[in-house]
Amino acid sequence: MSSTLQLFKQTFRRDLTLAFRRKSELVNPLIFFLIVASLFPIGVSPEPNFLSQLAPGLVWVAALLATLLSMETLFKSDYEDGSLEQLLLSPQPVFLVVLSKVLAHWLLSGLALTLVAPLLGVMLFLPSEGMPGLMLSLLLGTPTLSLIGAIGAALTVGLRRGGVLISLLVLPLYIPVLIFGSSAVQAAVTGLPLDGYLALLGAMLALALALAPIAAGAALRISVSG
Amino acid sequence: MAFETFADFLNMGGHGLYVWLSYGLGLLTIALCLYLPIIQGRETRRSLRRRIQRESVKS
Amino acid sequence: MASSWLPRWFYQLASPRWCYSITGKLIPWFAAIGGLLFVIGLVWGLAFAPSDYQQGNSFRIIYLHVPTAILAQSFYMLMAIAGAIGLIWKMKVADMVAKSVAPLGAALAVLALATGAIWGKPTWGSWWVWDARLTSMLVLLFLYLGVMALNSAIESETTAAKSTAVLALVGLVNIPIIKYSVEWWNTLHQPATFKITEKPAMPAEMWMPLLVMVIALYLVFGLAMMLRLRNEILTRERRAGWVKELLGS
Fold first, then answer.
1. CA pair distance C180, C174, nearest whole angstrom
2. Chain B residues touching C243 at Cβ < 8 A
3. Going by C-beta distance under 8 Å and a sequence separation of 6 or more, which residues neighbour residue A176?
4. Architecture of domain C23-192+204-236
5. How confident is residue B34, by pLDDT bands cut at 50, 70 and 90?
6. What is the rounded distance in angstroms from the CA atom of residue C38 to the CA atom of residue C44?
7. Which residues of C touch B10 (CB under 8 A)?
8. Which of A137, A56, A150 is nearest to A98 (CA)?
């Protein structure tokens, strides 16, 4: 048990350390998030009323795409330098490795996106009543996105051009999270109670937490051995 | 019979275009789903047969 | 494979040779019965079923739209279950079934979407409405396309089959969630839209041809699947003795 927990901790710490060494990769999803969100006022209309109506969906779509963009690298460098194979050979369950890597990844992408989101909200004239809903829904929704994305990353890790493919595999699975996430923000803007949406997002997170690491672990074994 | 004349049948109460377009697409799709594997199978069998003959000549 | 509680045919199915010969025997039956039922359903639905009091004759698209939608969904299930069997029992034939079903399922989803859109024009006045059923069908099509893209991106056949199976299973778990969320989203944004296929009570003259068409399309697309499966078996087993024997003579 203790060695299992240790594996989890060590993988987690190693991933964080490695991520902090490559600072540019760390901020890339955040910059992408900001750029995508600023494309809409430029491309559609800078009119405040119009934008504030679109804002809940826009921020969520931008967050979803930014998460997706950062997913591809989740297992890539470990696969290329062979350490992934070593991890898979260890007697500990694979899903723990996946879980710790996803957690480290989420801290640097999903959580960071959640913290930057109010800035986007302001840029897109999201009413201030919507901010708590935005942050809470992203806080509960982005881990689910990371977990589902890990399955896609695991399936495509052995492929040279996995970038577009991973979005094809994962985006349809993101739809429920997008629906409930943006609806939560919408509800917060109109002053409706949020707990129902947050409960649904939480339920999806629980389901993803239980099943996605297993699926991603199986996918990693297939990709690495193939 | 829900229609009096054949022209009525074709006209479908003014919705002929939609009904016949749907069924045309449907028939086309079904035909393709059956036809493509059949010619593909013929091709596969032919190339496999040629390969088997080549191998038997060699040995 | 030590467990013996599974019936014998299950193990026989695992043999590509047995599968090839049994599908060869089944194909004429599927073609005859499927073709006959298809013609009956088509004539019955198009010419004899009464027209809908609200939608008139455009309602007759139901006899194509609903069966294709049902088939697109059940083919996805078939693909995922076959993939799971392939993963668990390492059964080659199951992998081949999963691979041959995917393009057919995608074609069915496209057909369901196209007929839905065409039906939408006289009913809603526009070719596309973000109706709950159509949207879920669109997502189902995306899932099929993802599975097919993954399968064609991986070169090794066994790896491709296993990866595809995992993806199909993940999709299978997600389908109910997607369906529920899309339905919920739809009622939130478009309260009380007119649902084209939801009838409180359909008289027997209307649903009988529908039932015939569903069965007919199951048989016809089952036939298409068997044809694809046989090609797949021949290609993958080309080095096996029985294939050489079969084609050599």
1. 10
2. 48
3. A204, C174, C177, C178, C180, C181
4. Up-down Bundle (1.20)
5. very high
6. 10
7. none
8. A150
Contacts of C26 (CB under 8 A, 6+ apart): C226
Q: Is the pLDDT of residue C213 over 90?
A: yes
Rounded to whole angstroms, how far apart are CA atoms C185 and A163? Answer: 29
Is the CB of residue A77 less than 8 Å from the CB of residue A104?
A: no
B and C: number of Cβ contacts within 8 A: 98
- Which chains does B contact via 3+ CB–CB distances below 8 A? C
Is the CB of residue C76 less than 8 Å from the CB of residue C168? yes
Residue of chain C whose Cα is closest to the Cα of A223: C159
Mean pLDDT taken over chain C: 88
Mean pLDDT of A111-119: 93
Whether the Cβ atoms of residue A106 and residue A131 lie closer than 8 Å to each other: no
Give the Cα-Cα-Cα angle C65, A175, A215 (nearest 5 degrees).
105
First-to-last alpha carbon distance for chain B, in angstroms, is 68
CA distance B31 to A114: 51
Residues C184, A179: C-beta atoms closer than 8 Å: yes
Which residues of chain B make contact with C37, given a CB cutoff of 8 A?
A: none
Shortest CA distance to A170 belongs to which of A184, A159, A156? A156
* Of residues C47, C61, C224, nearest to B1 (C-beta): C47
- Residues with Cβ within 8 Å of B33's Cβ and at least 6 positions away in sequence, in order, are C104, C107, C221, C224
Place of tokens 């014998």: C8
Joined tokens for residue C6 = 């599974």
Q: Do A155 and C166 touch (CB under 8 A)?
A: yes
Torsion of CA C49, C50, C56, C60, to 10 degrees: -10
Locate the domains of chain A by residue range. 2-225
Global ipTM: 0.91
Is C122 near chain B, with CB under 8 Å?
Answer: yes
Closest residue to A169, CB basis, from C150, C180, C188: C150
Residues in B touching C57 (Cβ below 8 Å): 12-16, 19
pLDDT attached to residue C14: 79
The C-alpha atoms of residue C144 and residue C109 are separated, in whole angstroms, by 9
C52 three-state secondary structure: strand
- pLDDT tens for A151-164 read 999 999 988 877 78
Q: How far is A206 from chain C (nearest CA, A)?
A: 13
C192 confidence band (pLDDT: 50, 70, 90): very low
Residue A31 C-alpha from the chain's centroid: 15
Asked if residue A142 lies in contact with residue C148, where contact means CB atoms within 8 angstroms, the answer is no
- Cα-only R_g, chain B: 23
Instruction: Report yes or no: C138 at the A interface, CB cutoff 8 Å.
Output: no
* Helix extents (H) in C125-203: 132-153, 157-189
